[in-house]
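step: validate -> pass
step: tokenize input -> pass
step: predict -> running
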Amino acid sequence: MARRRREEIENTVYNDNDDTIREIIVEKKSGFNTIEVVIIMIIAILFGGLLGSVLTYTKGFISPNRVPSDLEELVSTYNTIVDTYYSKLNKEELLDSAIKGMVDYLDDPYSVYMDEDASESFNETVNGEYTGIGAQVMQRDGKVIVYSVFSGSPAAKAGLKKDDVILQVAGKSVDGKSLSEITAVLKGEKAGEKVKVQIARGEDVKEVVLSRGKVELPSVTGKVIEKNHQMVGVIVVDVFAANTYKQFKNELLDLENKKIDSLIIDVRGNPGGHLNQVTKILSLFLNKKQVLYQIKNKGKKEKVYAESKESRKYDIIVLTNKSSASASEILSAAIKESYGGKTVGVATYGKGTVQKAFSLESGASIKYTTEEWLTPKGNSIDKKGVIPDFEVELSEEYMSNPSDETDNQLQTALDIITK
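step: predict -> pass
step: emit ->
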């Protein structure tokens, strides 16, 4: 289900893995050692300074002899507090607070510290997979209803179906419980764990045993719409997760086998994701001599070109809205400026920076801004967004009755591309 569809029912539908990224992630690394942590501390200090903290969890004290002289005072402060503070301390929480304070000092909305739980949720989203049952559920009229079941998921294999009403989870009634409480039990913690779910399907009540496992999150869907005697492919991209390129290419080839004449790429509500994924997707359409985007770091600009020998020639339109951010904006700008396509909808979010993400040994992680990105022609979209070629606000009719027919942004794109 497209993310923009989820947003329309966000008060009733809960995916047992859902998060908002609004980031461009260029690197993911796990497991800092002490030296790496010190390097990050230096980076933060270079960004603007810091008052007393340290960045790593250790079983003992951190020796000032193991760190550069600039950081000796920080380490000494940590050792002194841990050694002499009058009350009991949780060293891990103390260090977590220090890391968070350092990242907060950057005063950058996209540089953040995430604790272990937030990191897990974020990583699941950008990795495109998670451990769970592979279903979305919703609450409606006091009932907990299966909204969708991911293909090939544990829920699908166990026979769970759309519109099943969940009565009990793990032997306990769902009555009076919040949707987040219910989905937390459904999701569980480890692959291979089993959970018994009692459901009502029409007049029948039955029990289904679900074995939790790895679930690949679908981030790409596609279809063909016929208009004015032409076949138009439509690909919806929810997020640029680590497996989005693979899904996108498979969907694109399937549509091309159906002899499409043109293509609409829908990134409405897409908050961003991995830079390498949008780079690979754009390389399906542009040749190696064409610029995808530019990277700006400390005043220096570097042009990034397509990576493959593939290219396409048919017309392309990108659908955007104010929630299309980061990697979605890179795609939109490249299709406009390098491919010669058009955009329809409203101006995008306006995020022109790139982040790196790192995982700490404690399970927490940090993201911080490392670069700016520019359009192929060198324009910044930060705080401005990608301005559509055809500005179309989504109609009230669609909001009250969503369908392809009432989606006036989609219909406008179809009219333009089939003229």
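step: describe -> The CA atoms of residues 314 and 388 lie 19 Å apart.
step: cleanup -> pass
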